[in-house]
């Protein structure tokens, strides 16, 4: 089974836009919380995004993997940083997480390619 994280994030972006229109106050609050949680502080934005990716992988959320990988690429994360983060996920989550950790590394490879 092959997944396209470009397709997953594109499709979800459209769906999320529709949901934002349907519940604008809730969506705005979520966006405000996301901005507050991810800003540089004691932990860097990149570290926080690696944590978010780890949670997304552990929750087996394809959309989370795609969006957090995109952000990590923008923040200059390396394939090695992604792989090491996935090692921690596997340690804590076992076999099922191993499968999604492999997907996360594939998402990094796919989304890092320059078109």
TrEMBL record:
<dbReference type="Pfam" id="PF02627">
    <property type="entry name" value="CMD"/>
</dbReference>
<feature type="domain" description="Carboxymuconolactone decarboxylase-like">
    <location>
        <begin position="24"/>
        <end position="106"/>
    </location>
</feature>
<dbReference type="InterPro" id="IPR003779">
    <property type="entry name" value="CMD-like"/>
</dbReference>
<dbReference type="InterPro" id="IPR004675">
    <property type="entry name" value="AhpD_core"/>
</dbReference>
<protein>
    <submittedName>
        <fullName>Carboxymuconolactone decarboxylase family protein</fullName>
    </submittedName>
</protein>
<dbReference type="InterPro" id="IPR029032">
    <property type="entry name" value="AhpD-like"/>
</dbReference>
<dbReference type="GO" id="GO:0051920">
    <property type="term" value="F:peroxiredoxin activity"/>
</dbReference>
């Amino acid at each position: 089974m092959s997944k396209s994280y470009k397709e997953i994030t594109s499709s979800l972006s459209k769906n999320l836009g529709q949901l934002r229109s349907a519940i604008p106050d809730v969506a705005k609050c979520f966006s405000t919380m996301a901005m507050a949680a991810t800003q540089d502080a004691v932990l860097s934005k990149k570290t926080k995004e690696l944590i978010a990716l780890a949670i997304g992988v552990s929750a087996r959320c394809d959309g989370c993997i795609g969006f957090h990988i995109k952000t990590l690429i923008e923040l200059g994360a390396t394939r090695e940083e992604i792989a090491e983060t996935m090692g921690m996920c596997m340690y804590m989550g076992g076999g099922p997480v191993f499968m999604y950790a492999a997907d996360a590394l594939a998402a990094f490879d796919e989304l890092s390619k320059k078109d």
